[in-house]
C-alpha cells in the first residue's frame, strides 16, 4: 500500500526485552547504605527542689549607686522670645537662570 516506501518502524518495545525480568526488590541504595538503628531514650534530669537562701536581699543597683539622682533645674531659654521682623522691601537682583543666558 506504500509503494516503494517501507512502513515506519514501531516504537513499541519488543516482548523479548521484558521476558527476563523477575520481581523487583524494594530496597534502594539509600536504604541499603543507611540502615536504621534503634534509638535509646536518654534518662531525664530531675532538678533539685528549690530552697530560698536565708537573709535579706539588697535591691540596690550599681547604676543607682554610681549615678545619684538630683533635682532637675529649670532650663535657661537660649532663643529670644521675640524675633525681629525683616522689613519688606524690593529685592534688586538678577536670578541665575536669567543672568547666565548665552543668547539674548
TrEMBL record:
GO molecular-function terms, A-Z: microtubule binding
Any Gene Ontology CC annotation: centriole
Stored InterPro entries: SAXO1/2
Pfam families: SAXO1-2
Domain of life: Eukaryota
Family: Belongs to the FAM154 family.
Protein name per Swiss-Prot or TrEMBL: Stabilizer of axonemal microtubules 2
